[in-house]
Batch of 2 targets.
Target 1
Amino acid sequence: MFTPAKSNSPFAFVKTGTDHNVVRSKVGLLVFALVALFGLLNPTTIHASEVSVVINEVDCHGNDWVELFNRGSNAVDISEWILTDKKFSTKNLLHLYKFPTGTSLASHAHLIVQQTGVGDLQLPFGISCAKGGIVRLGQPISPTSITLIDELAVPIVPVHTTYGRAIDGSNTKEFTLPTKRTKNKTALPIMLGAQSKICAKKKSCVISLRATQTTKFQLVKKPPGVSISSKGKLTISASKVMTATYQVKLINAVGSRVINFRIISK
């Protein structure tokens, strides 16, 4: 679980009587305003293997939200950390969200910041599904320097789909099904069962491949004597039965996945 707290940050986005995000100015804002005279904040980057808190999933289909995930074994204090869809800068505060002081993310916990939410956890910017974009997470280490903790480049996203990590905290990023505050699930095809088959020499071999979230199967290359139906029926003629690996593309409306299927001849 995460622990939000009231914002004591130099600037924070709050809800007014209208639906517009506004900037609440405090003393610290003067520091950042002065820094703005010098342009962009100075970002540094840490290696992915050192990152515990990551951008886990992004939804851009209205009431946009960004999900963070702590893949580490310890809670992480993310007070004053920053989310933005721009370069780290003091010039465009309406594209910058600052986590309130006292915000902590427990081990293997999720945290959501969305455009319309409760209290301080309101996202002041959105991500375009039609154009894509980039979301950055940073940790300020001084008034003029921010450490880039993580960033997620969001492509053009199909309807009913989000974009994020195939498995919570993993380094594989792809189209996902909306799983706000729960474990991520890929939106791409998923192969089921074994990816190999023993076939007898000099006899034709027929294998029915199984997959979920799949509407069509194709061979990446089409060698003579080898074919596959759109439903996944792989056929190898008797003269072509040999130990070999074939690349099979699994396709659905969102995208595709290529798997290697191995034939072992005995």
Target 2
Amino acid sequence: MTAVVLQARLDSKRLPGKAMLPLDGKPLLFRVMEALNSIPADLRILACAEDSLSAFAPLAEEAGFQTFAGPKEDVLDRFCRVISHFSLKRVIRATGDNPFVFADAAAAINAEGFAINADYSGYAGLPYGAGTESICADALLRAGKEASSPFDREHVCPYLYTHPEFFKLHRPLAPLRWQGPNIRLTVDTQEDYERAKELYAALKIEQHCRYGYVIINTYNSLINLNETNRARR
């Protein structure tokens, strides 16, 4: 069984309460789950910190996600608990600050990873905040037993891709239509949030608004428009 597993927490140091900030009338976290619903999977799970469950559970239910609460700082252990609880074989990992995930790229990298039986798969060269990671559940369980540094425990996957002697890695450059390493789509600061509101509004009128090339083209059009407006002032 393959599951989209979304990690999220209520608090944020750089942008307090960002998970609940409104994005076109719904909390940011709901918009993230909405985007992830376009990725093929058997199951969708919101894996949140224990102190966030009461706030997030209604949003998850509305979005069609199951919920699982686990350790706040040891996110790797949270994922391992999710794997055991739901008997997962493969995880598509996503994070709660990325409402503009490329659904088509996520489906493609997961299919590639599954086809070659990779322990870890993720595209290089995507815009920041556009990607997901496809991970073999057994590999994550091994990382959960062996990883010891706080960094590895908090960020889930570094133990895998820094130990190629233990794990089969698939980290290709993304196809050209999805490339944009200088584009920032994540929401981590107030500036990111203001840009996300503009981008989300512009994407509402686009067909295939979950496709990577549509998001990139819309983003670039907004940047060009803003630069033109500033030049006229």
